[in-house]
UniProtKB/TrEMBL annotation:
<protein>
    <submittedName>
        <fullName>Dihydrodipicolinate synthase/N-acetylneuraminate lyase</fullName>
        <ecNumber>3.5.4.22</ecNumber>
    </submittedName>
</protein>
<dbReference type="InterPro" id="IPR013785">
    <property type="entry name" value="Aldolase_TIM"/>
</dbReference>
<dbReference type="Pfam" id="PF00701">
    <property type="entry name" value="DHDPS"/>
</dbReference>
<keyword id="KW-0378">Hydrolase</keyword>
<dbReference type="InterPro" id="IPR002220">
    <property type="entry name" value="DapA-like"/>
</dbReference>
<comment type="similarity">
    <text>Belongs to the DapA family.</text>
</comment>
<dbReference type="GO" id="GO:0047425">
    <property type="term" value="F:1-pyrroline-4-hydroxy-2-carboxylate deaminase activity"/>
</dbReference>
<dbReference type="GO" id="GO:0016829">
    <property type="term" value="F:lyase activity"/>
</dbReference>
<keyword id="KW-0456">Lyase</keyword>
């Protein structure tokens, strides 16, 4: 764990364990955070999309951060602080700082298709909270694309220190490195892990380690170390699961895999619906194959 750059390494975008009545199971969440670190992960990212932050009350969202910090220490916790308004995102960044966190992750404005001036103003506002900001580029869901040129400008202004890259376009890694060589690239989608690791990624904001942390950590380290003899077969074995991270049903899929390996995933809050029978069968089969292969 590198304290001055706590976004480096494997940070798990944590799924949030829910009870059958859809209330948050904070005890299970604390246990889950500790289990991830015990199994080799470097930290957690609560209140991301995988953590269903959009459907949490403000009280729940704050308590999720506090629970993670109490479980594993603030230096290992990088909360998502996305919100419709810049002022609200800044308040969540301030809350993270008060809880003891060392960095936050921030989507661009996502209430509408923001232009470049709005994006810059948004990150400038949240940077004033005083914590390092990791940008999260997810143009699929936000309809705002943090292209390499815009990322370089955000970094040059001092607003961001790293970027979780979820566009799926692995070619961007090289352009980002040319335009902003000090901006840390983080793998943002599980199913391009190997490609972005080879391209020089410094970390992974990860989904499937929620269910299979040890194998995922082994894959990450082999990939960033250039040990392709280890990484390629492991990547091929895990890819049927990793690709769910880039699908609409990623939360449901990862929670199902958690349940299948003996963790507590539980249901999702509406409007997310349960997996269709054929989707559930595919996730179940891929998870059982991974476990049978000794991956955990």
């Amino acid at each position: 764990m590198t304290d001055h750059r706590p976004w480096r390494g494997v940070l798990v975008a944590t799924a949030l364990p829910l009870n059958d009545d859809l209330s948050v199971n904070y005890d299970k969440y604390a246990e889950h955070c500790a289990w991830l670190v015990e199994n080799g992960c470097d930290g957690v990212v609560p209140n991301g999309s995988l953590g269903e932050y959009q459907v949490l009350t403000p009280e729940e969202r704050a308590r999720v951060v506090e629970t993670a910090v109490a479980a594993i220490g603030g230096q290992r916790v990088m909360p998502g602080v996305a919100a419709y308004g810049s002022a609200e995102s800044r308040r969540w960044a301030e809350q993270a700082g008060e809880a003891g966190c060392r960095a936050v992750m921030l989507l661009p404005p996502n209430a509408y298709r923001a232009d470049e001036r709005s994006v810059l103003a948004h990150y400038a506002e949240v940077a004033q909270a005083g914590l390092p900001v990791v940008a999260y580029n997810n143009p699929v869901d936000t309809k705002v694309d943090l292209v390499p040129e815009l990322l370089a400008r955000l970094h040059g202004e001092g607003y961001i220190r790293a970027v979780k890259e979820f566009s799926g376009d692995v070619r961007r890694a090289y352009r980002i490195a040319e335009l902003a060589p000090e901006l840390d690239l983080l793998i943002g989608a599980d199913d391009v892990l190997l490609e972005l690791a080879v391209a020089g990624a410094k970390g992974w904001v990860a989904g499937y380690p929620n269910a299979l942390p040890q194998a995922s950590v082994e894959l990450y380290h082999a990939a960033v170390d250039g040990d392709l003899d280890t990484a390629r077969p492991l990547y091929r074995q895990l890819h049927p699961l990793l690709r769910w991270d880039s699908r609409v049903e990623f939360v449901q899929a990862i929670k199902l895999s958690m349940d299948l390996v003996g963790r507590h995933g539980g249901p999702c809050r509406p409007p997310r619906m349960p997996l269709l029978p054929e989707q559930e069968a595919a996730v179940r089969s891929a998870t059982e194959k991974a476990v049978a292969a000794g991956l955990s």
